[in-house]
């Protein structure tokens, strides 16, 4: 493995640093971003914004109700009492966890939407005054 000689004054750059300078990291970052709405100004519908938390709340509610039903089965059925007593609370806790996570997620999204609107308003004001 041969290492290229380095110049003492540091004026000569390595091939790796040249590659980093010429790469389009900004555009690839924008394209591979998880939340593209930050980079684009297109408005999204309410369903697009709140779809994931609504699904999490719905699934959590269904699992929670299923846990309530499973937990109450030992009162009526005597055959698999031990299984119902073990599985019921597990479904109750899982459903409650998903329900609470989804319900907490909704105000967080609302707060982010308000911050984004304020940020876009301030950027438009800045561009209006400084681009004259």
TrEMBL record:
Transmembrane segments: 54-77, 89-109
Compartments it resides in: Membrane
InterPro entries given in the database record: PIRT
Keywords for this protein: Membrane, Transmembrane, Transmembrane helix
MF terms in GO: phosphatidylinositol bisphosphate binding; transmembrane transporter binding
GO CC terms of this entry: plasma membrane
Region (Disordered) location: 1-29
Membrane topology: Multi-pass membrane protein
Biased composition range(s): Polar residues: 17-29
Organism superkingdom: Eukaryota
Protein name in UniProt: PIRT protein
Source organism per UniProt: Grantiella picta
Protein encoded by which gene: Pirt
């Amino acid at each position: 493995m041969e290492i290229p000689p380095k110049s003492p004054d540091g004026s000569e750059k390595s091939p790796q640093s040249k590659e980093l300078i010429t790469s389009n990291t900004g555009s690839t970052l924008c394209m591979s971003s998880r939340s593209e709405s930050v980079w684009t100004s297109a408005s999204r519908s309410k369903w697009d914004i709140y779809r994931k938390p609504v699904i999490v709340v719905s699934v959590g509610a269904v699992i929670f109700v299923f846990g309530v039903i499973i937990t109450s089965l030992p009162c009526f059925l005597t055959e698999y009492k031990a299984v119902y007593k073990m599985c019921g609370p597990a479904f109750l806790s899982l459903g409650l966890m998903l329900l609470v996570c989804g319900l907490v997620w909704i105000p967080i999204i609302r707060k982010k939407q308000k911050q984004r609107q304020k940020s876009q308003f301030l950027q438009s004001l800045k561009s209006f005054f400084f681009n004259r």
